[in-house]
Amino acid sequence: MQSIKVSASQRYTVHIGSGLLANCGEIIKEIIEPCKAVVVTDHTVEPLFAACVRASLAQAGFTTHLFTFAPGERSKNLQTLSDLLECFAVEQLTRSDCVIALGGGVVGDLSGFAAGCYLRGIRYVQLPTTLLAAVDSSVGGKTGVDLSAGKNLAGLFWQPSAVICDTDCLATLPHEIFLDGLVEAIKTGILGSEELFALIESGAIRENTEDIIASCVAIKASVVASDERESGARKVLNLGHTVGHALEACSNYSLSHGSAVAAGIAIMTRAAMALGTCDLQDAQRIVQLLESLGLPLETEYSTEQLVQAALHDKKRAGDTLTLVLPERIGSCVLREVNLSELSGIIDKGRGKHQ
């Protein structure tokens, strides 16, 4: 097992290893006195892992209640949030109780937001069961739900009390869901570690999953420690996400997060190369790695559709938007652009030089 400390407004530890769900109760008991715990999960994860988690919590002295909802991004909305908050109230949770988020990014984002809202904040623990949640969304305290206008437009920063990542859960993932997480790991390598990128590039992914997760978590923990509320440096973690979130919105969330971000990374990488920001060889390595994994490098949506969807990006401030551009593998730069420039930059990333 590997343990990584995250130093934010709430200090906590990310535990990564095999067989951790069966022992999650004892791990959580070290930081939270036995209490009521609402285990939040979706209909896909519930039959796989909920019984094990609840048994472990019960053995450690916790009293549990289960809340489940339909899987997928379409459930990450205000109605599901309201249902979850009402569940907390019916179960009479107090500030000494806690929430257990068992699942992927949607479960973690929704559970964390509900925990942060209820009674103005109660504790929650992340038990990520997907690679995407393990390498990215379970760490850093970003929580939220989608609005009809765009993704993650309602949310707050609310750090978990712990993250417990059982790598055995990843064996249950369909290939396309595993790829969603791998895209976030590739993103992390591009912005912070040539060694991580090269490890993924080597193809020895399944044999090194724990190390890949640990590397991603360590990089993200360092960024979060320096800029918890995304006022500056943390924006670098959004590489590929401005276009990626626009693609998800355009597709009405029928396109997976990983596929959308992969296309976003490819477009921003090609744009960075055209703008002279990124070295040609590194740009080619990035695009070739995405292509070798069968990930999309383009989209059927027009640049104008992408720009309109990107107007709801959280990194927008007035008439400007902060883009993340690769500089080389292991380093990215933030570039503030006027909204009037966005169409031209995306076109450059699509090979449409004006």
Short description:
The chain is α/β, with parallel strands linked by helices.
What keyword list fits this structure?
354 residues; alpha/beta; Rossmann fold; Dehydroquinate synthase-like, alpha domain; seven-stranded mixed beta sheet; three-stranded antiparallel beta sheet; 13 helices; 21% strand
Description:
This protein has 13 helices and twelve strands. By secondary structure, the protein is of the alpha/beta class.
Strand and helix layout:
Blueprint: E1 2-6, E2 12-17, H1 24-29, E3 36-42, H2 46-59, E4 63-69, H3 78-90, E5 98-103, H4 105-117, E6 123-128, H5 131-137, E7 142-147, E8 150-157, E9 162-166, H6 175-192, H7 194-201, H8 209-226, H9 241-250, H10 257-274, H11 280-292, H12 303-310, E10 316-317, E11 320-328, E12 331-338, H13 339-349
Parallel strand pairs: 2-9, 3-4, 3-5, 5-6, 6-9
Antiparallel strand pairs: 1-2, 7-8, 10-11, 11-12
